Amino acid sequence: MDPSAPALQLNALACRRGTRLLFRGVNLTMSAGDLVWLRGRNGSGKTSLLRLAAGLGRPAQGEVVRPGGTPVLLGHTNALKDELTVAESLHFLLGVHGLVQDAATVDAALDRFGLANRRHQRIGQLSQGQRRRVALARLAASRSRTPWLLDEPHDGLDAEGTQALDALLAEHLRCGGSVLMASHQAPSLPGRVLDLDAP
Ligand SMILES: Nc1ncnc2c1ncn2[C@@H]1O[C@H](COP(=O)(O)OP(=O)(O)OP(=O)(O)O)[C@@H](O)[C@H]1O
């Protein structure tokens, strides 16, 4: 793929939930190295926009173009099964995204989020922040140029977890990836803002 080509485009996108039009006329072009902070009040449609960008659901108007391939969508909830171990969970998540699932990849990804010594622990025995780390670890095994769509990824993380995530985000952007991130937190990395509350 041409490195200067867009990885993800939203063209005049509109989203309806029930009878409510959440947003319309949203345009966004994400290229290699782009970080976009998706802002908006509670209920403005950030999660809905990320889902449309990932190809889940149909827009009321407009289109999503994904020249960079299928994005990795990391939802607001962790969607992990209590009875699986940390390593089994990550192995499963990598499979869902069609990523390499070998033991070395799993161990390296867990290590990035300080989970190497918890690989045999069951999810049901972890704290919320530790579960968030397991969910995030899949990003460490993602292909370099894949667009990442992240819904409140910092939620539940302590300072060390936040630092690990921000380091991974910066690395992904340096390697030609792109990130669209719904967040209520103050920007910790330089990027553009897409504000769904803007008139
Ligand atoms: N399955 C659904 N059916 C109907 N309406 C829905 C559904 N899911 C969400 N909505 C509505 O769509 C609107 C936008 O929800 P969404 O989760 O996209 O907002 P958000 O900006 O991510 O909010 P938050 O900041 O609270 O996470 C809300 O008013 C919500 O009630």
Explain what you see:
It comes from Caldimonas caldifontis. Keywords: ATP-binding, Cell membrane, Cytochrome c-type biogenesis, Membrane, Nucleotide-binding, Translocase, Transport. Residues 8-196 form the ABC transporter domain. One of its GO terms (biological process) is cytochrome complex assembly. Pfam families: ABC_tran. With 199 residues, this protein is an alpha/beta fold. It has a single domain (8-195), classed as P-loop containing nucleotide triphosphate hydrolases (Rossmann fold, 3-Layer(aba) Sandwich), CATH 3.40.50.300. The chain is 28% helix and 24% strand. The chain has helices at 46-54, 86-96, 103-112, 128-137, 159-174, and strands spanning 8-17, 20-30, 35-39, 61-65, 72-74, 147-151, 178-182, 192-195. The strands form two sheets. The chain has a five-stranded parallel β-sheet with strand order 5-6-7-3-8, with helices on both faces. The radius of gyration is 17 Å and the shape is globular. It starts with 7 loop residues before the first strand and ends with a strand. The mean pLDDT is 93. The protein binds adenosine-5'-triphosphate. Adenosine-5'-triphosphate binds at residues 17-18, 22, 40, 42-48.
Write a short abstract of this structure.
The chain is α/β, with parallel strands linked by helices. It is 28% helix and 24% strand.
Write the layout of secondary structure elements.
Elements: E1 8-17, E2 20-30, E3 35-39, H1 46-54, E4 61-65, E5 72-74, H2 86-96, H3 103-112, H4 128-137, E6 147-151, H5 159-174, E7 178-182, E8 192-195
Parallel strand pairs: 3-7, 3-8, 5-6, 6-7
Antiparallel strand pairs: 1-2, 1-4
Bound molecules: adenosine-5'-triphosphate (ATP).
Adenosine-5'-triphosphate binds next to helix 1.
